[in-house]
Specification:
10% strand; four-stranded antiparallel beta sheet; alpha+beta
């Protein structure tokens, strides 16, 4: 029997939630076979129970995985404001005003599993907005709600932050805390489209192969 189900296919990278990507990358490792990777992709990104995988049409699996792969290959542009759960968040307006504690945490949360914590520093609720200029709330630690933020906004913000951090390191922050070679390596991974500070050396789309 062929399974007849309806799913929502993401049209862009911002239709994918951050926590979906975090969960997928924590389960599907570099040496995972294609079938296992596809099963987990359908389970995590589309909510299709693994036990239904063999009942899906081959052409439908190919289509679903292809669209997801295309979405994940997008190179998103920086978004400085977005709304999540009726709360408007703004990207940190001025890195010069960053506290020492925020800077230390930014470097600490460089793994995919901690990206919502990284976003908690870079994006905070807007508390004042005047003529296009806004102020954001003080940093109060991890905001678990940001696990639901769009993946594209997450990746573009991280890429932008790495660019700024590299410039700061080259210019005035040549310390042992964050070294230029490490930042340059991370920045190159982001800007070359290979992924964003991934815990595995391969980009996600490498796993989403259409060959069965």
């Amino acid at each position: 029997m062929i399974l007849d189900i309806k799913i929502e296919i993401p049209e862009s990278i911002n239709d994918i939630k951050l926590w979906h990507w975090q969960k997928y990358m924590s389960i599907v490792k570099e040496d995972a076979d294609v079938e296992f990777a596809n099963r987990k992709a359908l389970e995590i990104f589309y909510g299709i129970d693994g036990k239904h995988y063999t009942k899906l049409k081959v052409k439908d699996i190919d289509k679903i995985v292809s669209v997801l792969s295309d979405a994940l290959r997008e190179k998103p542009t920086l978004v400085t404001r977005f709304v999540l759960n009726d709360i408007e968040y703004g990207f940190i307006p001025d890195f010069d005003d960053m506290t020492f504690g925020e800077f230390v945490d930014l470097d600490k949360y460089s793994n995919i599993k901690d990206y919502h914590k990284l976003m908690s520093i870079l994006f905070r609720p807007i508390i004042n907005d005047s003529k296009g200029k806004y102020a954001i709330a003080s940093y109060e630690g991890s905001n678990e709600l940001l696990k639901d933020m769009p993946l594209g906004i997450t990746l573009s913000a991280t890429a932008f932050f790495l660019t700024i951090a590299l410039q700061l390191t080259r210019g005035i922050l040549k310390s042992s805390m964050v070294t230029e070679p490490i930042l340059k390596q991370k920045q190159d991974l982001v800007l070359s489209g290979l992924g964003i500070l991934q815990s595995t050396p391969l980009p996600m789309e490498a796993y989403l192969n259409l060959k069965m």
